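Researcher: For the annotation table, I need structure tokens for Putative HTH-type transcriptional regulator YbbH. Please keep the output clean. Sequence:
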Amino acid sequence: MNGTNISKSILERLAGELPELTPEARKAATYVLENPRDVGVSTVREIAEAANVKPNTVVRMARQVGFDGYEDFRAPFRDAIRRGAADFPDRARWLQDISKSGDLGGLYADMVRDVLANVEATFADISTDALKSAADAIWNARRVFTLGVGVNNSVARNFTYLASTGMTEFHAIPRPGSTPVDDLAWADKRDVLIAITCKPYRSEVVEAVNIAREQGMTIIALSDSPASPIIHAADHGFVVSVDTPQFFPSSVSIIALLETLLSFVVAVASDEIVERVETFHKRRHQLGLYQAEEK
């Protein structure tokens, strides 16, 4: 399963039981051993069809290794997918399977639990000193570039938009029609790069971080593992928790951390930032961008 010890131990047990199985059950077991990811996203009928056996043969196979039935046997494999030990298509199929089974209440509970757990786990390992150090680097920089691609592109742009209400020279990259490396062509030690990527790591983000390091930029990295290549290259690295039942990494803790980092930037900034924010919003009111309140 490329994942949990539980599912791995089941496969080892199944392999050990192969000689004791009937020829038909052995066919089912062999299919499972060769295609363990299919178990978490497939019904008993789908596994039986793929293994070219009858569904009750798959059930007998599961009982042979100590389970009450196929659903009991499948549970650890589904849990491995929920914890991220599968690729995106497998996790999407698992979500579809939940919908077909009518267990959306369980999915809802998993989503809520993981959202709360991600935020708690992320901030539990980040000190205020680390955030303040990164905030000081941002405030003292000539320019700040925020890099995110894919799902993190909108996260980077949202952070840049919020920062621009009180600060200038914040840039979300890549710009339309450009590449991250092009956008950093004239950056140097006076500038900061905030880079975001999670497994599977985007090559253009890793490449941009390496280029930024060569150019002397200060790098602030947000990623989901201490072993992430952008964390290794960063001056300020923050590991975020992104677990989710969904088929893509959760963005909740990334957004929460960036909002917190921005609040630290405002806190360490000079008094002029308050006047900038007031001016920004005053102009928006004057331009009629906000709905007038009824008196």
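Researcher: And a one-line annotation?
Model: The domain at 126-286 is CATH 3.40.50.10490 (Rossmann fold).
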